[in-house]
Amino acid sequence: MQTRRQVWELAVLELKNISIKAAFYFILISIFSSFILVTFSHIESNIAIDVIFIMLFLFYPSWMKAKEIQMQKISGDLWASPTFIMLNQLPISKDMLVKSRMLAYSISAVPFFILQLLILYIFGGGFAETIATGEYIAFSVIWISFSIYAGFIMPASDTGDRVNSLTMTVYTILLSGGALAFFWLFYNFTDRALVQLTVELAQNWPLLSSAASLLLAYLGVRYWLGYMKRHMEKIDYL
What we know:
Elements: H1 2-16, H2 20-37, H3 47-64, E1 72-75, E2 78-80, H4 82-88, H5 94-123, H6 127-130, H7 133-149, H8 153-157, E3 161-162, H9 165-190, H10 194-204, H11 206-234
Antiparallel strand pairs: 1-2, 2-3
């Protein structure tokens, strides 16, 4: 119980650092994404919707972070979150530190995702008429779970890395090339958009798709927690 309370206190400490600028971004992104998402029923198979969903469910929590929490150049080739480095120097166990990062990410992200999905269902025009409430819950579980098992890469990256200009260029090329290759293969072999496919999964197998997504979310949490601890052992923060 004491450990859980300390993890909560560390997460709250990070959330308190969310600046007024970040709050402004929250309002701006909410309005923009809501405006785009309510057109979902008219462009269900549009690639633009896929990009918007992926950008929101992967990167939104990082946009909300105050500058001192975001990953940045510390010195030389060391990139990390200044707040993470500061907390790492205190007598705090690695387990509590990494769990608090994940908790802070979840608290700042999940309510926003629920709000966006609720807005989409209520104001999404004809979309609400094409999917039952239970199926839409399954659709929401799929995407919120995605924000966990894939999105946790963002707080995990705060542990830092030693990156020079060449490495950064190579990473950028590989990630960009990998993303383009994935979308090209996906759209050519499935002949449908990614969001459209998740709608079909939710409609045809709501319980199975929800269970599989929750399992992936659980495994994702376990993986990223382990990754952060192992990575902290490898990085020289001095």
